[in-house]
Write a structure and sequence with these properties.
Blueprint: H1 9-24, E1 29-31, H2 38-46, E2 73-78, H3 89-101, E3 105-106, E4 118-120, H4 129-135, H5 138-143, H6 159-168, E5 177-181, E6 194-197, H7 205-214, H8 224-234, H9 247-257
Parallel strand pairs: 5-6
Antiparallel strand pairs: 1-2, 2-4, 3-4
The structure holds zinc ion.
Length: 264
């Protein structure tokens, strides 16, 4: 797909810089392939194997092995009508040099499978393997580009606040404090995204993480001892319950908002 706006924001900035450098050097820069879906990658993989043509890639769609699938690469060509098949050695060599001056890496420098139209962000090396290890799928990586929305500091432990805490503590992200003892419900009106049960078993994974953080017994249930310890930790009045609205929850929401740079 030729949609530059789907690429990593930093790559978009570098493309702008490269465009003006190419203009200054009389190079007609055209941009072809940008972000590629798994289906599009499979189509390309078929070329030269189950479909006619030359082999153009070693990466299958489901392997997420192409930098194009991660939005960190694009291909360029000489944008002069009727001259697409000229000997473009000069064009690509100059383009590659200018691109490197813009902080991009160039497939023309690859050993073995040289890919002269290919430019990419250099931070993860020559293959998407490190991205695959960290994010597993391109969708997760692309989601991490979005600027994080700030939580509303309203003192209510609702689904958005619980979900943000779950992201920060890397516990399952459903926005619910699951498996909480119904005995504590009336004392904690601020806890408005809890699942109240008569006989909790393991409690909530998030509460267990919070209990580890404030060093109280870890049972996954948000009771007075845990809440008092949280109030001490976050420096709010210690009464052992989450009122509605609650000063403790406000402190937690502010704390979450200060973790905005976290890459979760
Ligand atoms: Zn490419």
């Amino acid at each position: 797909m030729r949609d530059v706006s789907q690429l990593h924001p930093e790559l978009q900035e570098k493309i702008e810089r490269l465009k003006s450098m190419c203009d200054a050097h009389g190079l007609k820069l055209g941009i072809s392939e940008c972000l590629r879906t798994a289906e599009e990658q499979d189509e390309l993989y078929a070329q030269g194997r189950t479909k006619p043509g030359q082999i153009v890639t070693y990466a299958r769609g489901c392997d997420y092995g192409s930098q194009h699938q991660w939005g960190i690469a694009f291909d360029f060509y000489q944008d002069i009508p009727g001259h697409a098949y000229d000997d473009l050695s000069f064009f690509y060599n100059v383009g590659g040099i200018l691109a490197k001056a813009c902080g991009l890496a160039w497939g023309g420098n690859w050993v073995g499978f040289v890919d002269r139209p290919h430019l990419y962000l250099p931070y993860w090396g020559d293959t998407p393997a490190p991205l695959k290890r960290q994010y597993v799928t391109p969708e997760a990586f692309i989601a991490s580009w979005e600027p994080r929305e700030m939580l509303v500091v309203d003192g209510w432990m609702g689904p958005a606040t619980v979900k943000r805490l779950q992201e920060i503590f890397c516990t399952p992200q459903d926005g619910i404090l699951s498996d909480q003892w119904i005995f504590w419900r009336d004392a904690n009106p601020g806890l408005c995204s809890a699942e109240w049960v008569d006989h909790p078993s393991d409690g909530s994974a998030l509460v267990r993480s919070l209990q580890e953080m404030v060093e109280v017994p870890v049972d996954g249930i948000l009771g007075p001892e845990t809440i008092t310890a949280l109030q001490s930790y976050f420096g709010t009045y210690q009464d052992g319950c989450m009122s509605g609205p609650s000063a403790l929850v406000m402190a937690i929401q502010r704390w979450c908002n200060n973790q905005a740079d976290l890459n979760v």
